[in-house]
Design a protein that fits this description.
Blueprint lengths: L4 H132 L10 H11 L1
Helix pairs in contact: 1-2
């Protein structure tokens, strides 16, 4: 094998071909691959940032919901307590009103009973004396009933 100019020209032409192919074909393809890799990486980083923001928003939303639920439970509990107090107050007022009404009516009945008993004493004594007079006659003397005797009879029959 002889080294002649054809081998040298072929080698140089091969090196020029590789250099040209590198500039024309390989380098643009490598640049496109690098740009695509950078684009994918930036989209991945952006997606992670959005994911973190979304998680922060979800946790904030959950905290706000929990706070709103706690506040609503507190409001409901306060309103319930206020209504219970109002109910107790109204019931106590009604009980007191009813108790005072029944007490006054009871006192009125006791007073009326005493008045009726006092009026009856005189009426019973008068009727008993008249009956005795009619039964025994006008001229016969008898001892008229007094209030104490009538009161004893009324207590026995009450």
């Amino acid at each position: 094998m002889e080294i002649n100019a054809t081998i040298l020209v072929s080698a140089i032409s091969f090196l020029v071909f590789i250099f040209i192919m590198n500039k024309i074909l390989y380098q643009p393809v490598l640049d496109i691959i690098e740009k695509r890799r950078n684009y994918i990486e930036s989209n991945k980083n952006e997606a992670q940032a959005h994911h973190q923001k979304a998680e922060a928003l979800v946790s904030d939303k959950n905290a706000q919901i929990a706070d709103a639920q706690r506040k609503s439970r507190d409001i409901v509990a306060a309103k319930t307590d206020a209504l219970k107090e109002e109910k107790t107050k109204v019931l106590n007022e009604a009980k007191n009103t009813a108790a005072s009404y029944f007490s006054s009516e009871k006192q009125n009945l006791v007073h009326q009973k005493q008045e009726s008993a006092a009026n009856m004493k005189f009426d019973v004594a008068d009727i008993a004396n008249r009956l005795t007079t009619k039964l025994m006659g006008e001229g016969i003397a008898f001892e008229p009933l007094n209030e104490q005797e009538v009161e004893e009879v009324m207590k026995e029959n009450a």
